[in-house]
Design brief:
heterodimer, A: about 120 residues, alpha/beta, five-stranded parallel beta sheet, 5 helices, B: about 270 residues, alpha+beta, PH-domain like, eight-stranded antiparallel beta sheet, seven-stranded antiparallel beta sheet, 7 helices, about 30% helix, globular
Chain lengths: ~120, ~270
């Protein structure tokens, strides 16, 4: 089980992820509604894993991912994006993302992916 | 000719038998003792280790056969049937599954093979893989673009339900063929499209509830997340049910203790004398 930080600009998606991850026994150590806040919270909370939305208003998820990876090369970040933005996958993986979740997602597969990344 | 061991069903009973696989068709031995030319086969479905085969007889009537065997044998049968049966077939590249339950399949790759459109489903066939997408289970279709070898190419994106998980697959072939495939699939699955008047019945909160159901949340979790009462959620469920967007899988009971139940609890909690 892991300590997880959720970064997403919509309250609905944060709540949904929080619910799914908590049901899988994970601890949600923090939430952020934008990439820059996510980076700050990463420094402060040192979570085991971050779920990172790609499209956010101030700092997007790819920039935030790069910033987190520059702070901690071993950081485990899973990107989260809407259908139709899968072309971001290559960029995210190249930037160090460990996994990719496409919205809408299903709880069991999300938990499986999180478990795989945490166990890796 | 290849001979494969199978079990064949007739009138509810399974008979241990064999099938001869030839260039022109299959010969089912006991209990049918019948030749089935590939060109007479119009449909093929698979349910776990059972193949459901539909072939037209001499009087154009459809005959159904159930054949069970180990996966190794089924692979041989499926490949021969799909590549030679009476179906719309096209050479294509496909990626299936590319996304499962919203999670990107990291080792997914484009496979060179064929796509065969049969009566109740489409099959992707490559050297190593045979994937069936039943038309009844198709949830979404889109003509879109994917990057392949630094080129943006037109693809058909097919979402379908596989054991309650939403699976996304991609098909890549020349645009004109792709459009034919897309139009065929769109037409074959049009009964699942939302009509304008139906969309009007869905407000933002109903859409949120549908999204949470998709994500696997139960009734209690949805009430908590959206901060709505059971009555409000029931009303939204009714709308979703009316639009055939959901189906009832369980009716839960709310109960209260009877005097006998209260007495039992009181006794159970009494400290030992």
């Amino acid at each position: 089980m892991g300590r997880i930080l959720i970064v997403d600009d919509t309250l609905f998606m944060r709540t949904l992820l929080k619910n799914i991850l908590s049901s899988g026994g994970h601890e949600i150590v923090g939430e952020a509604e934008d990439g820059d806040v996510g980076v700050e919270k990463y420094k402060e909370l040192q979570p085991d894993l971050v779920t990172m939305d790609v499209v956010m208003p101030k700092m997007n998820g790819i920039e935030a991912l790069k910033a987190i990876k520059s702070l901690d090369a071993n950081a485990k970040v899973i990107m989260c994006t809407a259908v139709g933005q899968e072309q971001m996958v290559k960029l995210a993986i190249k930037s160090g993302a460990r996994g990719y979740i496409v919205k809408p997602f299903q709880a069991p597969k999300v938990l499986e992916e999180i478990g795989n990344v945490l166990g890796a | 000719m290849t001979e494969v061991p199978v079990k064949i069903e007739k009138d509810g009973a399974w008979v241990t038998s064999k099938i001869d696989v030839t260039e022109s068709g299959l010969t089912l031995r006991e209990p049918y003792n019948k030749d089935i030319p590939y060109r007479s086969i119009v449909d093929l479905r698979q349910h776990k280790t059972v193949l459901l085969l539909t072939a037209t007889g001499e009087s154009k009537t459809e005959n159904h056969y159930k054949i069970a065997s180990v996966e190794k044998v089924l692979v041989v049968l499926k490949k021969r049937i799909i590549m030679s049966c009476n179906a719309y077939r096209l050479m294509a590249h496909f990626m299936s599954p590319a996304i499962r339950g919203g999670v990107l399949v990291t080792d997914a790759k484009w496979e060179k093979g064929a796509v065969a459109v049969l009566k109740t489903g489409i099959w992707f066939v490559s050297q190593d893989k045979q994937v069936c997408v039943p038309l009844d289970e198709v949830t979404s279709l889109e003509l879109t673009k994917r990057e392949l070898q630094k080129k943006k190419l037109d693809v058909v994106k097919i979402d379908f339900l596989d054991e309650n998980e939403v699976v996304t697959s991609f098909v890549l072939c020349p645009l004109s063929t792709l459009q034919v495939l897309y139009s065929f699939l769109k037409d074959a699955t049009k009964d699942k499209d939302m009509k304008g008047a139906e969309l009007d019945q869905l407000d933002a909160q109903s859409a949120q509830v549908a999204m949470l159901v998709y994500s696997g949340m139960d009734t209690h979790a949805i009430e908590n997340m959206l901060n709505i009462s059971q009555t409000e959620l029931d009303a939204i469920y009714e709308t979703l049910l009316k639009l055939k967007l959901v189906e009832v899988v369980m009716i839960r009971k709310e109960v209260q203790l009877t005097p006998k139940g209260v007495r039992y609890i009181t006794e159970a909690l009494r400290p030992p004398a």
